[in-house]
Each structure stands twice: as structure tokens, then as C-alpha cells.
Amino acid sequence: MRKKPKQKRSRQMVDALIEATAQTIIDKGLDAVTTHHIADAAGVSVGSLYQYFDGKEMLIEALMDKLANDIASLLVQLPMIEGGSLRHNVQSIIEFGFSVLHSRDGLFLELVSNWNNLPTDKVMDTLQQSFMDLSRLYFLKNYQQNPIEDLHVRVFIIVNSVLFNMVRFIGQNTALLTQQQVVSGMTDMVVGYLNADQDPHGAQVLTP
Amino acid sequence: MRKKPKQKRSRQMVDALIEATAQTIIDKGLDAVTTHHIADAAGVSVGSLYQYFDGKEMLIEALMDKLANDIASLLVQLPMIEGGSLRHNVQSIIEFGFSVLHSRDGLFLELVSNWNNLPTDKVMDTLQQSFMDLSRLYFLKNYQQNPIEDLHVRVFIIVNSVLFNMVRFIGQNTALLTQQQVVSGMTDMVVGYLNADQDPHGAQVLTP
Amino acid sequence: MRKKPKQKRSRQMVDALIEATAQTIIDKGLDAVTTHHIADAAGVSVGSLYQYFDGKEMLIEALMDKLANDIASLLVQLPMIEGGSLRHNVQSIIEFGFSVLHSRDGLFLELVSNWNNLPTDKVMDTLQQSFMDLSRLYFLKNYQQNPIEDLHVRVFIIVNSVLFNMVRFIGQNTALLTQQQVVSGMTDMVVGYLNADQDPHGAQVLTP
Amino acid sequence: MRKKPKQKRSRQMVDALIEATAQTIIDKGLDAVTTHHIADAAGVSVGSLYQYFDGKEMLIEALMDKLANDIASLLVQLPMIEGGSLRHNVQSIIEFGFSVLHSRDGLFLELVSNWNNLPTDKVMDTLQQSFMDLSRLYFLKNYQQNPIEDLHVRVFIIVNSVLFNMVRFIGQNTALLTQQQVVSGMTDMVVGYLNADQDPHGAQVLTP
DNA sequence: AATGAATGAGGTTTCATTCAT
DNA sequence: CATGAATGAAACCTCATTCAT
To answer: What is the average pLDDT across C125-130?
Structure first.
């Protein structure tokens, strides 16, 4: 960001531009956003855009920052049922995830779908971090046992798995799968994995 | 494809163009691919490119087709250890997956990373189909029992999970995770899920 | 034309190419003809096309030549009613003109519409010449009087007038005018003009 | 037009572009006009061109609009001699027509020659409309009689006839005809036609 | 003779970014 | 500060023509 908005008007403009970026992404898709579209949507001139942001990239980055914060706040408020089973809680979170991806007219969906072309991994990182905290808390509360050592690995894997499956499912237009099936399947997988013994090579009753 | 290559020279050209597309994707990334780059890399003129392909999209599609076939052939040859444990086989496949993603100077990595911008889902679809076949075969051989009903859901979820985790891991340059950890974690998760009772809430009694 | 077709096969090819040119003009419009279209339509290769013609221009020129001849032969056969009134004969010719413009799926219409971009004026010239002959003959037969001196001027003016009006009328899609009205109007005009005193400044009963 | 010019500078630019279009048509002919030529001629970049016009077509259309207006204003100022004979006035108009076609280095000539490839019929329509008004006025003033019913047909025919004859004559480089002859001939024809009884077969009694 | 593969100049259009007003 | 006019590199695609086979 070129200039720190110190005045009220400036902060409004910065916000308007970020919001306009979001709207433009929703309307035209990430690939089709142009600085002109954003400026138009924000009701300002391109010149002003460049006075506050170094370019398109920076704007998207700013948007991602904001969204990351939004998500983080949402996640900490996630109604985790105290006495609920792990399965129940996991399923709630996954369903929450779907609702987030559908929210804002698909803004998150579009962003996650294009995660690779985004200037930062902020959203992903935030998600991961939030879930990490969430999980740590959960296990601490409910198991009061020695913390799972490789929790960060599990969270990494779970977050990525759930996220990509949701995106792939939504993006897919075949009727071969229902959301109910996907939610249920992922819940099974995640719960199983979270419950799995830490020692990956320990007692394996599961081998054929 | 616009024209069917009737002469030997033209078949070579078609191949050269597809190969050049691959190389350009490797060199510059999918987004930076242009018809000129491809033509240059193939050592031919743009005009020639357009004699055989309707444009960039079609070239990428052709490349994907070819790669999908390549992968399919590789997968059927996957050394599935007959007497090996499910865990062992799953781990082998995941490791094989990593090696594929690293092969061809990251071509597959780049393509899977950008799956969303690709003209076809052929590679993903092929992967899913191949794994579906593979899994069906495996369970048939090793369990000779009633087939898993929701196998297609599980395969969908597993393929997506494993794929995206690999891509994310490779694309990530933090040293917080080792490939060994990710492989191991995913193996745990996948094996657990494959063994999970079909009735999502029942007990795990699937072992032979 | 590059080569004079001495062999039967060659003459067939030349004919096929000219005919293909006509068909392509009909199908795509004069502006959209390409050598490839023509060669395709003729069922030969571009290479062959260039063996017999110096390029697109020459092909169109050849087509025009052929059409000019066709028209000329048609015109000399025009059923001029011996005892018919001038008005009747003129109207017949105009109606004949309309039918020609509509013939061959609008080939003539397309050509006359684009007369300005054509390599030769052959068709126009032929038309003019044919009508000149026709008129001369008519006046000789029916009036046996001193020939109209400025006949070539009148024919020039009449041919152009009638031709362009027909083209404009056909190209127009408003329902403001009927073909019957245009034919009738042009007949009036032409007959009046042909009958007009030769001395343009002579007895003018017509002034207001 | 894409953008409405809000600043003074941009209005100048729009004008410069339209003027450059005219100049390019004069210099290279309608077919050879390219966006780059126009931009070069206007002394601006292609980008600027596209900020105000959707492309070549729109520019030509804008030019035609402007010319149509110019012509319309010229025509209403046409010095119609009050007491003059119809013949005299017709001849004046035709001569005026020739001078217009020769004006602006042949711009009109080029445009009318290519009427078929132009994006709009505006010029032709304007011409027709203007002459329609002119004629109606003339007959009203001078004959104060029942208006000629099929006036629109006559005007259509006359405008087309005169226009095309002028274009053809100018485009022709044979010395077989003099402009004087063509003017005179067309005048005869037009006057005769305008005076012709409405009943196409009756006697000519229209004179006052 | 016939083929059709190969060429590449030339046309259209877009868009991130700058800078005079 | 804010504006939006101006830029021009860079992408896409076509088609007349040549030439090796």
C-alpha cells in the first residue's frame, strides 16, 4: 500500500476499493478483474486506485487480508458444542465450511479455486492457523491428555482435504454425488484420522 | 484440431506443438503461455500452430489428453503388492503420486495447481476413474465380500484430498512439514477411511 | 492465368475453380472469400489453384469474364416483342434484370453490389455494350429514323440507373416500396427518357 | 462510442479521430483502413482510439453521421431559384452533386462507391430524405396541386439513379463521355420522370 | 502435376500504468 | 488529492502465397 490512509475520506476510499475488488471478482471472476472495473465499481478513478494501492495484486492482497480476518473471527465464534461428539462437531464445521464457500455470492469459492494465482496464501494460512488453535483447544478440553504431537500435520492435511473437496464438489455439476454424501464421507475420514493412534505404525488392526 | 494431419511431417508437427506447450507451461507457467511462445518453442510459425489447433485452449486440451493417457497407463502398471497390507499399498501409491508431480519438471504440478483454469477436467477425471478401477479391483481381490457401496464417494474424496495435499505441500516452502510426515499422515487418513464401516456410525469391523 | 489448360483434366480444373469461386462468393460473400475456401470448394489443393491462376483476383476476374459472356448470350436472346410497345419491352427487360439478380442464389447481386472492389468492369461493360446493341437495333427496327445521336450516353445512364436501383431495392429490407412500384417507376423514367427529344434544350413544354 | 468525452481534450480527440478516419479513407481507400492507420493519422495511440470507439466500424459510422449532417445542412441551403424552371433547378442540383462527390479529395466518392460495405446507410438515407423534403417543398410551392402520390418512389429512383451515374462516371476513365453529357442526360431523364403523369400510361399534362 | 505444410506480416483488441490537469 | 486521458506492449488470429515432397 502506497499511502497510509490517515484521513477519514481516505480510509473510506480504501475500503470502497477493497469491497469493489470483491464485487468485481464475484461479478466477472478473478481472471477478468481489471483495475478499471475495480475503480468503476468503487466509484473512483483509476488514478485514485493507484494512489492507495500499488496495483491489482496489492488490492487483491488487501482483500485477502480482510477476508482472512473475517474468517478468523467467524471461526473463533464457531459454536462448538461442549458435550458434543467429535463427529458431530466435525460435521458442523464442514457444513459451516460449505456455507462459507457459498456465502458472498461465491467470493470465497472463486478465491479458493484460484488459490494458486493469488498473491498471498493468507487465507489458507489463516484457515490453517485457526483450525490449529481450534483443534488444540478441543483436544485439550475434551481429552486433557498429552497433546497430539503431530497435530500440525493433521490439521494441514485435514484443512486442505476438506477445502479442496468442497471446492471440487461445488464446481462439479454432475449429479453423481450429493452434498450430504460428501459431508458425511469427509466427516468419517476426518474423525477417523483425528482419532487415529499417533504412532502411525502401532497396533494396526486394520490390515487385511 | 482443425486439420487432420495427413502427411508424416504434420504428425510430427502436432507432436512438437503439444510438447512445446508442455515445455512452455514448465518454463513460464500456465498463465504466461502464449501462442507465440508455443510456436517459438516448437520451432514453427504461429500460422502453423493455427493450422492444427484452434488456439491455445485446444493445445492445452490436447496436452491434457495425452497426459491423461500417460497417467492412466502408468497407474494400471502400478506395482500393487499382492500380499501387501492396504497401508503399504496406499503409501506406495501416494509416494508414486509425489514422484509423478515432481516429474517432467513440475508439469503435472503446474497443471493440477491450475486445474480450475484448464479447459477440461480430463486429468482429474482420469485420475479419479483410474483410482476407482484400482480400488474396486483391490477390494474385490482382497475382501471378496459385498462391494463397498459408496466407493465412488470415497474415491472422490480420497483422490481430491491426496492430490491437493501433495500440491499444497510441494508449493509450500516452509520447513514446518516434511514430505515423510505428509505421506505418513495421508496414508493414515486414507487407510482409516477406506476401512471405515460403511454405516458411518457403526463400529469398525471391516477387517478380514 | 498462368498456364493455358491444354489438357482435358486441366480445363476441368479451371472450370471447377471458377465455379467454386462463384459458390464461395454466394456462400460467404465477396469479402470473405479466401483462396482456401475456393480450393476446398473446388476439391483441389491451394497449390493447384496457384498453378492455374495468379491469385484470388485473377480467379474473380475469370469468373466475371464467364458471367459477362453468359449475360451477353442471355441478352441477345431476350424476347423482344416485335410489335410491342417500347414501354412493354422496357418493363420486360427490367423484370428480366430482377430475375437475373435473384438468380444463382444472388451471385450477381453480390457482384454488382461490390462492383467497386472487383478487379474488372467486365460485367458492367458487357451489360452496357449489350444494351447498346439492343437499343440500336430496336430503334433501327421500330423507328427507321435518324439514329439517336447520344444513344451511348442514354444507355450508360439507363443501365446504371436501372442496375443500381434494382440492387438498392433488393438490398433494402424496408417495406416502403414494392418491387412492382420500382419496376413501374423505372419503366416510366426510362421510357420517358428514351422518347425525349434529342435536343436537350429544344421545345420544353415541361417547365413550370 | 465507449466513453463520453468529459473533458475538452477528449472532445478534440474524438474529432481528430473521426477526421483521421476520413483522411485515411481518402489516402488508402476504405478497404485499407486499419485502426493503426487511423490512430497514426490522428497522432494518437491505438489505445486512445479504443477508449472512444468500439472499433473501426464505429469510427466509420461516426464519420458517416457527421457527413450525413453536413450534407443535410448543405442541401437545405441549396440555392433553389424561385422562378427557375424545374430543368434548371434539377441541373443545378446534379451539378452540385458532382461538386460534392469531388469535394474532400473524393471522400464522398469513396464512401458512396462502397456503400455496400458501410456499417450504416445513414448517408444514403439522409440523401433520400433530404431530397424527399426538397421535392415535396418544390412541388408544393410551384404546383399547389394535389401532391404526387408516389413521390417517395420517384425520389428513391431518382436519387439512386443520379448518385450511381455520377459515381460510375467519375470512376470511369474513358473519354467516351463528358460530364456535360452526363449532366445533361440525367437532367433530361429526371425532369421527364418528375413531370410524368402519375398514371403511368396517361398523357403528360402535368405542366402548369 | 498436384499436394498441403509452412510462413509471417498484418490486422484487431485489451489493460496495467502514468501523468498532465 | 482526485481525475481520467493517453499510452503501447502484448496477446490473439487470418490468409495469400510459396515450396518441398
So the answer is: 85
